[in-house]
Specification:
Blueprint lengths: L5 E12 L4 E3 L4 E2 L3 E17 L7 E4 L2 E3 L5 H11 L5 E7 L9 H17 L5 H11 L11 E4 L12 E5 L7 E6 L9 H11 L3 H20 L3 H20 L10 H15 L4 E4 L6 E5 L4 H9 L6 E6 L5 E2 L2
Parallel strand pairs: 5-7
Antiparallel strand pairs: 1-4, 1-14, 2-3, 4-7, 4-8, 5-6, 8-9, 10-12, 10-13, 11-12
Helix pairs in contact: 1-2, 2-3, 5-6
Bound molecules: ligand 2P0.
């Protein structure tokens, strides 16, 4: 069988119980589990095309030639699994700004492994696709699935059990998400480097890791009961603890700008006044506001008016990664 061109899409995801730290850097094995929501509107579309004349893999990212360094190991594994020694051109397009703390590596690697699976005809099941995505980027393992998703830290050394699984479909609790962009442009320190520095130098890192299992249990129960207030409490706490561990690294990782902090206060003021909304922040300055169904537009309007917010993106929870053609 020959390698066929294939296109896949995957949504970005936002962790509510955060992933920050690895137990194995080579295999991207997380030090603890995480829980996320997959988004509908922020997505990557990726086409993998075999090109007989190529003697190396090529990457086009948002229409521009880019380094293939991080995708070659992914394609190498598909070449090994399928027994086909074919180099490929990979064309990947994001519907949102790349490298701005909006998890483009998550949707990017999820779309890539699903497109490569179709192109090479390997027909991996969802758990194995999640494993392949994790090897590209830890958070990508979660974007294989839609709605509410849990990533397991796993126990083994080979990473086969460090994969994600779905907790609840988006349709069963259609929360809305507003992203407040407070700074356009790539973030100052990548997640990989930031978590590495936190692991090596932050005195709070062990306490952070120890606190995650209880947060996972609280979040699972909140999702199971569709209890928004309980999910709000555990999610804000997880985000703030993750940033506290990073702030205590040497030198400290300060991902926030003044508008980030202003948005956190705005979200808390909205919630205190009765709006169903809570915040989370990843390794960058953008604020993600998770809203009860029907409340996204109101939250977007308020965050758009915060000093320093460049733009807001409104979206909903969405499906897992899938093949388009
Ligand atoms: C998360 N982040 O749970 C956390 C919170 C950012 C902050 O997963 O090194 O790009 O490729 O595994 O997946 C971003 O980290 O890092 C991330 P690698 P990744 O969403």
């Amino acid at each position: 069988m020959s390698v066929q061109p294939a296109t896949a899409r995957a949504g970005a995801n936002i962790a509510l119980v955060k992933y920050w730290g690895k137990r194995d850097a080579r295999l991207n094995l997380p030090a603890a589990g995480s829980i996320s929501v997959t988004l509908a509107g922020l997505e990557t579309r990726t086409t993998v095309s075999p090109l007989p004349e190529l003697d190396a893999d090529e990457l086009m990212l948002d229409g521009q030639p880019a380094s293939a360094e991080r995708i070659v190991p992914v394609l190498d594994r598909y070449r090994m699994l399928s027994g086909q020694d074919q180099h490929c051109r990979v064309e990947s397009t994001n519907s949102f700004p790349t490298g701005a703390g909006l998890a483009s590596s998550a949707s990017g690697f999820a779309a890539l492994v699903v497109a490569a699976d179709a192109a090479f005809g390997t027909r991996l099941d969802a758990a194995r696709l999640s494993e392949q995505a994790r090897l590209g980027s830890g958070s990508a393992a979660r974007s294989i699935f839609g709605g509410f998703v849990e990533m397991a830290a796993g126990h083994g050394d080979d990473g086969r059990d460090a994969v994600a699984h779905p907790l609840l479909d988006a349709a069963d609790w259609p929360l809305e998400v507003v992203v407040a962009i407070t700074e356009i442009g790539p973030k100052s320190v990548s997640s990989t480097d930031g978590m590495n520095r936190t692991m090596k130098t932050s005195p709070y890192y062990p306490a952070w890791v120890d606190s995650v299992p209880e947060d996972l249990e609280r979040a699972r129960q909140a999702i199971d009961a569709t209890d928004f207030e309980a999910l709000a409490e555990v999610s804000e706490s997880s985000a703030l603890k993750m940033h506290a561990s990073a702030l205590a690294a040497q030198p400290g990782l300060l991902y926030w700008n003044p508008a980030t902090v202003a948005c956190l206060h705005e979200v808390r003021a909205l919630r205190a006044a009765g709006t169903g909304v809570f915040f989370t922040v990843d390794a960058g300055p953008q604020v993600k506001a998770i809203c009860l169904p029907g409340q996204g537009a109101r939250v977007a309007g308020r965050l758009a008016g915060v000093d320093g917010v460049e733009r807001v993106i409104e979206t909903t929870l969405g499906p897992g990664a899938g093949v388009l053609t």
